[in-house]
What we know:
The chain has helices spanning 2-14, 19-34, 40-50, 57-70, 73-85, 91-104, 110-127, 132-143, 153-162, 166-195, 205-230, 236-254, 260-293, 296-307, 311-328, 331-348, 353-367, 375-384, 388-395, 399-411, 413-424. By secondary structure, the chain is mainly alpha-helical.
Amino acid sequence: xxxxxxxxxxxxxxxxxxxxxxxxxxxxxxxxxxxxxxxxxxxxxxxxxxxxxxxxxxxxxxxxxxxxxxxxxxxxxxxxxxxxxxxxxxxxxxxxxxxxxxxxxxxxxxxxxxxxxxxxxxxxxxxxxxxxxxxxxxxxxxxxxxxxxxxxxxxxxxxxxxxxxxxxxxxxxxxxxxxxxxxxxxxxxxxxxxxxxxxxxxxxxxxxxxxxxxxxxxxxxxxxxxxxxxxxxxxxxxxxxxxxxxxxxxxxxxxxxxxxxxxxxxxxxxxxxxxxxxxxxxxxxxxxxxxxxxxxxxxxxxxxxxxxxxxxxxxxxxxxxxxxxxxxxxxxxxxxxxxxxxxxxxxxxxxxxxxxxxxxxxxxxxxxxxxxxxxxxxxxxxxxxxxxxxxxxxxxxxxxxxxxxxxxxxxxxxxxxxxxxxxxx
Length: 425
């Protein structure tokens, strides 16, 4: 039965059926063919899969990021980042990373970062004489920080699928996200010295103070969200609502950079994106239930453990598998499909579910920069007006710091679990 389920799913994907339909269709084919449950149970399971309070965070985090981009708030963040680190060698490369770290505390998605801040950053780096490949590469690498530093849309999905505390997952992502930023900035520094990149702005305390005041309220968004969650003022789901309300207040009331027509456009884009994500979650819920019922999870665990029972080796195999999956599958779909399969294996070798959540999401973020289904690559190719192939080659060198970070996160669980232990355990 498990063979029929997986083969049907892969066949539907190969013929071009959307992921959500392939998940639900393969599940329905198994139920109809084997008669293991009434057909209506498929529908009920799909509805139950999206009938979850934490999933309410999805539309609000998506909308918060869109409001920040459409309301011109990202420009204030970028100006502050220039004043803060633009005086370093290869200044705009460092600005790119710092801007992404700040924006990560608002949007929670890599695509929003690449399409919003990336548009500003690539244009500025081109105007200052940087090669477009360097600009695209650093923008792609820095955009993957977004879903690691809280809040994070992929971590919300993982938390729902793994029945794990989203608050702990958010706390776990902060230090690895900052470490990732540091490794990328180290590579920018190396490039700057080898290629002789100059400083892009003289350090001036007055300019730093001016841009800080101008960006102060947007900079308070991560403080508002993380502070509210850690102190128990609101849950991660309520934090998403607070982020949207705050972004709407800044863009429409305080700065008046977003019109009602713009708000309607952002809202419609949010509805469209949310519908796609939730349809995938609904399809994956029945698919995951059938995978568990047919004992695929036990079979996978037995196969892997028959190769090796050493935890470090199992983690290495899982990382390689996830990196390959990230090349071919969209992040949300991969999480919803693979969590029911891989999490039991991780628990058998003693890996904490929160730790594995960061490992999985980081793997899939690297997948956003690898062909053929690297969504960030498509966004950057459009923003920079270059071919997909050029964007892929530009991002390839920056996989080095990302893979290094993945190794550290995988084999140093204390980095991931220290903050959750302090705040939640």
